[in-house]
């Protein structure tokens, strides 16, 4: 009897052990808990078929850091990057340094330290951008830079894609409008609104010099920015003071390398009742459009790239880097000319493509799997 009970007990123990160690392949798989944020979808989600695994494995966090103040161009750039990133399911945080290079480098260092997966930086200077971004690359972060020169003793960071507006074309388009104001074969006399030390503006300067050397324009005065907290007010005061020095008939045009400066010059023209000087600029915003449309406005043209599109394209490039897909070392976005005479009463940044064909449109670096993510996240 004892042998029988012992055998029975052994059999029961064996069955119990076998049941505990049996694979659960026949049981329904427990679905992975989705992230409560905008990304982190389960890899088994049928709606994400074809999306690279790296884009679905976890919540992707991106920091966008811009080394300028919160002007219209900046707001649109950040809005484009944020919306495109969120449409991919990314969590996107944006930061501004107000043109303070030390603060800019601090913000980038903090983003690296805080463990963001990706980084988009805007308007870094050549004297520190390599050292600023090298730790991010070494850490394995994906990086896209806009209007930033990355060079240290001839060495760059090939892991980083750098985008630019086509600054050479922006300068060419705007300066051709300036040169067209020439009379009697004489060079156009220009008040130049200029700011040195920023890579995109330095690129525009090379074209400006070509127009000077060709005898198409002559620079009467150069006006720069000294107060980045109030660019418009700063330029308005400086241009206003200069206008007293140059009576009507002595200045043929104002050329602004940046529309934020142009707004200040426009204010000075209005306040001083100077309807004799047309103005041509670079960059565009809703405020610019409104000012160009005002009765009697002398702001006659501007060359620009849609700032929101810049943010969108930069985020697409970053997404391709997350996916492990090839990206170029450099990419220029196409420039357009916007003329005052083409603007309609209802024209704004959203519908500008009605009067400027191709404005704000680009399939650059867009992939079918990005459309899948957009469908998933409803953007």
From TrEMBL:
Q: What is the lineage of its organism?
A: Bacteria, Bacillati, Bacillota, Clostridia, Eubacteriales
Tell whether Transcription regulation is among the UniProt keywords: no
Q: Where in the cell is it found?
A: Cell envelope
Q: Which SUPFAM superfamilies match?
A: Periplasmic binding protein-like I
Pfam families hit by this protein: Peripla_BP_4
Q: Where's it mainly located? A: other
Q: Where is this region: Disordered?
A: 24-48
Q: Provide ranges: composition bias, Low complexity.
A: 35-44
PANTHER family the UniProt entry points to: ABC TRANSPORTER PERIPLASMIC-BINDING PROTEIN YPHF (PTHR30036:SF7), D-XYLOSE-BINDING PERIPLASMIC PROTEIN (PTHR30036)
Q: Which key words tag this protein in UniProt?
A: Signal, Sugar transport, Transport
Among PROSITE patterns, the record links this protein to:
PROKAR_LIPOPROTEIN (PS51257)
Signal peptide start and end residues: 1-19
**In which organism is this protein found?**
Symbiobacterium terraclitae
Q: Which residues form the Periplasmic binding protein domain?
A: 62-325
Q: Which family does the UniProt entry place this protein in?
A: Belongs to the bacterial solute-binding protein 2 family.
Q: Indicate what this protein is called per its UniProt record.
A: Simple sugar transport system substrate-binding protein
């Amino acid at each position: 009897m004892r042998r029988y009970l012992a055998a029975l007990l052994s059999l029961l123990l064996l069955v119990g052990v076998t049941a505990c160690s049996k694979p659960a392949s026949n049981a329904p798989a427990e679905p992975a808990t989705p992230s409560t944020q905008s990304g982190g979808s389960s890899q088994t989600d049928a709606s994400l078929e074809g999306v690279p695994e790296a884009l679905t494995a976890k919540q992707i966090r991106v920091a966008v850091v811009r080394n300028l103040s919160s002007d219209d161009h900046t707001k649109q750039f950040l809005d484009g990057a944020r919306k495109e990133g969120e449409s991919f399911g990314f969590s996107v945080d944006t930061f501004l340094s107000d043109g303070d290079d030390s603060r800019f480098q601090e913000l980038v260092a903090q983003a690296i330290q805080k463990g963001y997966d990706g980084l988009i930086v805007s308007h870094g200077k050549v004297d520190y951008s390599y050292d600023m971004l090298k730790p991010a690359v070494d850490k394995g972060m994906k990086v896209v830079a806009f209007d930033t020169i990355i060079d240290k003793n001839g060495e760059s960071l090939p892991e980083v894609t750098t985008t630019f507006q086509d600054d050479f074309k922006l300068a060419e388009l705007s300066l051709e409008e300036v040169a067209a104001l020439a009379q009697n074969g004489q060079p156009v006399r220009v008040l130049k609104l200029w700011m040195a030390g920023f890579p995109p503006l330095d690129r525009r300067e090379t074209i400006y010099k070509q127009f000077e050397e060709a005898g198409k324009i002559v620079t009467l005065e150069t006006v720069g920015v000294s107060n980045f907290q109030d660019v418009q007010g700063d330029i308005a005061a400086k241009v206003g003071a200069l206008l007293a020095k140059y009576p009507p008939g002595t200045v043929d045009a104002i050329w602004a390398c940046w529309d934020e400066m142009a707004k200040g010059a426009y204010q000075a023209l209005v306040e001083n009742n100077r309807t004799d000087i047309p103005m041509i600029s670079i960059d565009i915003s809703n405020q610019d459009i409104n000012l160009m449309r005002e009765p009697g406005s002398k702001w006659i043209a501007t060359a620009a790239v849609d700032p929101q599109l810049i943010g969108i394209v930069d985020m697409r490039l970053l997404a391709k880097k997350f996916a492990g897909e090839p990206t170029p070392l450099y990419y220029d976005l196409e420039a357009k000319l916007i003329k005052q005479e083409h603007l309609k009463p209802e024209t704004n940044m959203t519908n500008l493509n009605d009067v400027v064909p191709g404005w704000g449109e680009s399939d650059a670096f867009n992939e079918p799997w990005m459309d899948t993510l957009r469908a998933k996240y409803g953007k």
